[in-house]
């Protein structure tokens, strides 16, 4: 018979600032690192990583960017660690299932929404900001490619502030999966599910909230009700004034999907491939829309964290 090991916090390394904030119950917002390493072009990605942390601070919370470095899950990175995430072209993309291997084999990698949600919740962080979630890919019937993000959010008590799911995906199918898996979705000042680069995906959401305090109230109700440890998705659209031109979006996305098929891009590589194609194919306009979305999400997450802490 093998030896059963209990979970042990020595696998996590919170930064001094994050450890102190968590100990005091101060608001903390987790940020993922895959968007930095695989989702945004260099060298802009480092600027963005630093800027997002600053936005979270301005909103009244402590930022904790999460990544695995040499087998250790860092909860909160310093500047040189952020540089490593932004600069290393060989850095792995780690979803939840990769964490045991990365830990045991002392590997380094950026964490996706699934891995970041798990590690954040494990460290005691309740709120997380990103750009767009992963979801069901358009070729699902052939590939069965559904992001591990959805599964993790159906069993992790975390609030994810995002601009919907990436528009490269099958959005209605993704919303259906979230419904089936019991993940609560609320639109922030919108009745429509956001479309990542676009203000709206055209799909409806059942719940609309107007304030960070309402998000905090839903989080408290999750705890009071009990039951399966599911996530809350706060879907926060990019403002119409900062969205990508919808026509340009649709045209370049169609080209990107065709190119991915032609070049037989599959698995983990497909999301970075499509995002990169959109940046080039729109002359950087998709990047600006993506950044506007992520900035807004970091700001709102900071405010929700502060409201949750105050008990608003
Ligand atoms: N949001 C962005 N850019 C990104 C991602 C999210 O604005 O690059 C990343 C997240 O880390 C998400 C991942 O978890 O893309 C999804 O990858 P996949 O489809 O392979 O599960
Ligand atoms: Mn996938």
TrEMBL record:
Active site positions: 32, 166
Record GO terms (molecular function): hydrolase activity, acting on glycosyl bonds; metal ion binding; pseudouridylate synthase activity
Biological process terms in GO annotation: nucleobase catabolic process
GO annotations of cellular component type: cytoplasm
Binding annotation for substrate: 93, 113, 147-149
Cofactor remark: Binds 1 Mn(2+) ion per subunit.
InterPro entries membership: Indigdn_synthA-like, PsuG
Metal-binding among keywords: yes
Keywords: Glycosidase, Hydrolase, Lyase, Manganese, Metal-binding
Cofactor annotation: Mn(2+)
EC number of the protein: 4.2.1.70
Binding site for Mn(2+): 145
Reactions accelerated catalytically: D-ribose 5-phosphate + uracil = psi-UMP + H2O
Subunit: Homotrimer.
Role this protein plays: Catalyzes the reversible cleavage of pseudouridine 5'-phosphate (PsiMP) to ribose 5-phosphate and uracil. Functions biologically in the cleavage direction, as part of a pseudouridine degradation pathway.
Family: Belongs to the pseudouridine-5'-phosphate glycosidase family.
Name of the featured protein: Pseudouridine-5'-phosphate glycosidase
Lineage, broadest ranks: Bacteria, Bacillati, Actinomycetota, Actinomycetes, Streptosporangiales
Gene behind this protein: psuG
């Amino acid at each position: 018979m093998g030896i059963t090991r209990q979970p042990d916090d020595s696998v996590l390394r919170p930064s001094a600032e994050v450890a102190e904030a968590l100990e005091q119950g101060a608001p903390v917002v987790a940020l993922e690192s895959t968007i930095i390493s695989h989702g945004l072009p260099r060298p802009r990605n480092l600027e963005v990583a630093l800027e997002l942390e600053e936005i979270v601070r301005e909103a009244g919370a402590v930022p904790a960017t999460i990544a695995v470095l040499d087998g250790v899950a860092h909860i909160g990175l310093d500047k040189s660690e952020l540089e490593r995430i932004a600069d290393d072209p060989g850095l792995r993309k780690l979803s939840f299932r990769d964490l045991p291997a990365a830990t045991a084999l002392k590997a380094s990698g950026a964490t996706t929404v699934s891995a970041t949600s798990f590690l954040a919740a494990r460290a005691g962080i309740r709120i997380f900001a990103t750009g767009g979630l992963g979801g069901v890919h358009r070729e699902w019937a052939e590939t069965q490619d559904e992001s591990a993000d959805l599964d993790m959010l159906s069993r992790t008590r975390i609030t994810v502030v995002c601009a919907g799911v990436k528009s490269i995906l099958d959005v209605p199918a993704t919303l259906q999966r979230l419904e089936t898996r019991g993940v609560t979705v609320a639109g922030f000042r919108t009745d429509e599910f956001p479309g990542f680069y676009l203000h709206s995906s055209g799909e409806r959401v059942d719940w609309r909230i107007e304030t960070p305090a309402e998000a905090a109230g839903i989080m408290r109700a999750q705890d009071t009700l009990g039951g399966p440890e599911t996530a809350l998705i706060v879907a926060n659209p990019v403002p119409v004034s900062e969205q990508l031109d919808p026509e340009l979006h649709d045209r370049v996305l169609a080209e990107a999907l065709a190119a991915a098929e032609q070049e037989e891009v599959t698995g983990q590589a497909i999301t970075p491939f499509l995002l990169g194609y959109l940046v080039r194919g729109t002359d950087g306009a998709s990047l600006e829309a993506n950044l506007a979305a992520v900035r807004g999400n970091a700001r709102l997450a900071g405010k929700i964290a502060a409201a949750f802490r105050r008990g608003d």
